[in-house]
Amino acid sequence: MTGHGPDILNRDSGLLWHPYSTLAAGVSYAVTGAEGVRLSLSGADGEHTVVDGMASWWSAVHGYRNPRLDAAAHAQLEDFSHVMFGGLTHAPAVELAEKLIELAPAGLQHVFLADSGSISVEVALKLALQYQYERGQGHRQRFAALRGGYHGDTFATMRVCDPVDGMHSQFAGQGTDNVFLPRPPAAALNSAGTWDADADALAAWETQARELIGAHAQELAAIVCEPILQGAGGMYVYDPHVLVILRELADEHGLLLIFDEIATGFGRTGRFFATHWVDITPDVMCVGKALTGGYLTLAAMMCTSEVAQVLDDSGSPLMHGPTFMGNPLACAVANASLSLLTEDDPEHPGQQRWQQQLQRLQTGLREGLAPAAEFSGVRQVRQLGGVGVVQLTEPVRVAEVTKIAVENGAWVRPFRDLVYVMPPYVCSSEDLAQLTRAVVTAVGEVHGR
């Protein structure tokens, strides 16, 4: 490897944009290695080995240099790394589609392989518009979404993100205005495994949602939401019954129901898909992030036969086709990743590997982050599945919290008023203790007074 630490940081400065940042802002650390759940960092303050509390933005669920995923990538490289999907197919893509259909809620039977999460949502929105057009409902050009939601950074996906509190308010003039339902009331999963929610607040939310959808039904093509957990909108958790209400509204008014499971899929909320918290099936579902275990960019849009048949009966192709659609290398790694997640846990018969891993994450995050609730600058500590959140009473001082967390052995990337973690599933109890201890220490030193 050429260039490490300060050399790379200096060369990066003013050269590369980083996510949601200015050129002048730069970064403080360079990654010089990654293995298991740990990153090797080099910065102006020296070398650090840290537990990756972000799992590379929630994707590297199996950690780094996983032997099974490495082997799958190497084996596919020996055959071919890429081939166009137009007019051709290959075994890794077919196998992946079959696995996704087997794992998804019953009824989702068809798969479009996209090259990123944002693009999979774009395809879902296109599909909804084409579906309505072919049903003679071409005037249905708008979407209903939840306040607080986030669905990507491309233009169509920006239009279904929260228009006020989201990251894209400066682009509010682009495209057709959509309909935004109020954010559902917050809820929490208690230690007994049942949901605590304010029944009156939920009933009031349902009344507002029904009124808004009813008023705009003839303009709407679909309802879009992140089920159970709104990620970039604040790691916000709401009652699964909201999904039942949205399903009823979609059916009543002839709308498609689109679930964005890019962040929530593959076990992160404590169910394999967040949709599994209730017994319903969306018409369309998008998955990504952890699909390849963080190795390569890949996402998928899935839909029911009823939706797909409308396009096929009319002879209308689904109008999207990325260059890297169905990339064989990414599909091969995704197949290995899904196998790792769903195979039986060798030490716990009757449980799949991801289930045992999530139980360990849930316990470690809940117990390890609990002391942060005692700090005066902390509003709430919450946990759902493999997600742990410390919400502050003020905007987080990102640079200070990050520096102290790194010094104490953890990598975190706070935002808004949140210091949160979504670590790799393969974290041991010791890894989780180190991670949560670093978070609590950083929060306490910066926001605890």
Automatic annotation (TrEMBL):
Keyword hit for Hydrolase: no
EC number: 2.6.1.62
Cofactor: pyridoxal 5'-phosphate
Domain of life assignment: Bacteria
Protein location: Cytoplasm
Main location: cytoplasm
Marked site: Participates in the substrate recognition with KAPA and in a stacking interaction with the adenine ring of SAM: Y20
Reactions accelerated catalytically: (8S)-8-amino-7-oxononanoate + S-adenosyl-L-methionine = S-adenosyl-4-methylsulfanyl-2-oxobutanoate + (7R,8S)-7,8-diammoniononanoate
Assembly, per entry: Homodimer.
PANTHER family membership: ADENOSYLMETHIONINE-8-AMINO-7-OXONONANOATE AMINOTRANSFERASE
Protein name stated in the entry: Adenosylmethionine-8-amino-7-oxononanoate aminotransferase
Organism the protein comes from: Micrococcoides hystricis
Source organism phylogeny: Bacteria, Bacillati, Actinomycetota, Actinomycetes, Micrococcales
Gene of this entry: bioA
